[in-house]
Amino acid sequence: MKYQRPKGTTDIIPGESAKWQYIEQTARQLFKNYRYNEIRTPIFENFEVFSRTSGETSDIVTKEMYDFFDKGERHITLRPEGTAGVVRAYVENKLYGPEIQRPFKTFYMGPMFRYERPQSGRQRQFHQIGVEAFGVDNPTLDVEVMAMAVNLLQQYGLRDLKLVINTLGDAESRTKYHEALMAYLKPLEDVLSDDSKERLHKNPLRILDSKDKKDQEIVANAPSILDYLTDDAAMHFATVKKLLKTLKIPFEIETNMVRGLDYYNHTIFEIMSNSKAFGGNWTTVCAGGRYNGLVEQLGGPEVPGIGFGLGVERLLLVLEAEKIELPIDEDLDVYVVGIGQATNEETLKLVQALRHAGYSAERDYLERKPKGQFKAANRMKAHLTLTIGEEELQAGKVNLKNMQTGNEVKVLLDDIYSEFDKVYQGIVEREKE
Question: Does the keyword Protein transport belong to this entry (predicted)?
Fold first, then answer.
């Protein structure tokens, strides 16, 4: 039998994993600057965590969730997105308590699972980096979250980006809009797609997000939610637009954008790239929005929230298509070349000492001749080689060679163990002269 990875999954092998580490490290540092701290939630949750929050008419619930009954007959779901699990953890751990500073800011990283047709940038196991902020209904926070998302993508080297925003208003706005949308769509029910016919009576806003071309033609002339906003909702959205302009962040308004999950309200946004990775079409790389009311749905108090999610696989495809080289340094600091069997113990002691001193170090394990060891050092892009043979071992000295310049010096073996930092700095300073 030939064993292969499951369909819709990918092995992230050494070399590729370095790119992932850079993506994650960059995000961690930026989130730290914005005072977001990491949260880690289970990869699987109770089915209701997602079915209740994502919406019974969403594609995630109706088509894509990996759900099963475990041995205790509990209905379990592999998480299809990050927000609902974070909200569950926020409620269960009472992170809304009076002693908790507001906004409560957190971020997550990890795999998500959706059963869908695998394609470029869309896998059955995919990875998201996301942020959530709870406890503040101020539109200033909406803008800060969007600005952080734009900032993050720019730090990765992306420039040709487009921020698209919309509002779904408050509960009263949506009720009025629901009535207007129903009045528009009901006479067209017969020509809607089968999915949209079902959604018409459950959640007609989901029809605005339909990928069916006929549906898209119909909703192109649908009423705009912007005409049904309450005064408070209109003021919230007006402030968002004003503050984006204050920060000089360009944006476009797309009134038919609703996002794929039912828990969103007020501000929603998508950041798109027209990368060659997707045929030059504008494709969403990062998206999010406000979800006031979601905490109450999962048994918590009335606490507003907002966040975004970024697809790592899709981001890497865009970076590759744009030929953006990530600044990844996998070079080796020191390769220890041992000549003769008698040096085996000493070379082992040397690489361990160098590692403990904070340097990356490697040695030969295949009993190769010196020429083969130097070739290995070149392949690993070693900055220095430290060579010790039986004569050097007896004399208590080693040869240090700068692999870039070819310059070589003799150094006391004791100095390698006791003050390698000073030795290394001396070599660097000597090369500057």
Answer: no
Handedness of CA 268, 271, 277, 282 (dihedral sign): positive
d(CA 388, CA 397): 8
Name which of 163, 172, 171 is nearest 142 in CA terms.
Answer: 163
CA distance 363 to 185: 71
Domain ranges across the chain: 16-170+230-321, 332-432
Handedness of CA 58, 131, 236, 283 (dihedral sign): negative
Number of neighbouring beta carbons within 10 Å of residue 89: 19
pLDDT tens-place string over residues 20-67: 999 999 999 999 999 999 999 999 999 999 988 776 656 677 678 999
In the annotated binding site for L-histidine, the residues are 81-83, 114, 128, 132, 259, 263-264
pLDDT tier for residue 6 given thresholds of 50, 70 and 90: very high
Ramachandran sector of residue 312 (left: φ over 0; alpha: ψ -120 to 50; beta: rest): alpha
Angle at 425 between CA 423 and CA 427, to 5 degrees: 70
Token pair listed for 217: 């033609």
Rounded to whole angstroms, how far apart are CA atoms 249 and 147? 8
SS3 223: coil
* Residue range 107-118, pLDDT digits in tens: 999 999 999 888
Q: Residues annotated in the binding site, as ranges?
A: 81-83, 114, 128, 132, 259, 263-264
* Residue whose tokens read 């170090």: 361
Question: Of all residues in the chain, what percent are helix, strand and coil, respectively (each to 5)?
Answer: 45, 20, 35
Its CATH class, for the domain covering 332-432, is alpha beta
Q: How far is CA 257 from CA 184, 200, 204, 225, in A?
A: 17, 17, 13, 10
pTM of the full structure: 0.88
Q: Look at residues 245, 233, 412, 423 and name the one whose alpha carbon lies nearest to residue 334.
A: 423
In CATH, which of 3.40.50.2300, 1.10.10.60, 1.20.1250.20, 3.30.930.10 is domain 16-170+230-321? 3.30.930.10
Model pLDDT for residues 170-194, shown as the tens digit of each residue: 989 988 988 999 999 999 988 999 8
User: Nearest 10 degrees: CA dihedral of 92, 98, 100, 103?
Assistant: 100
- Cα separation, 162 vs 251, in Å, equals 7
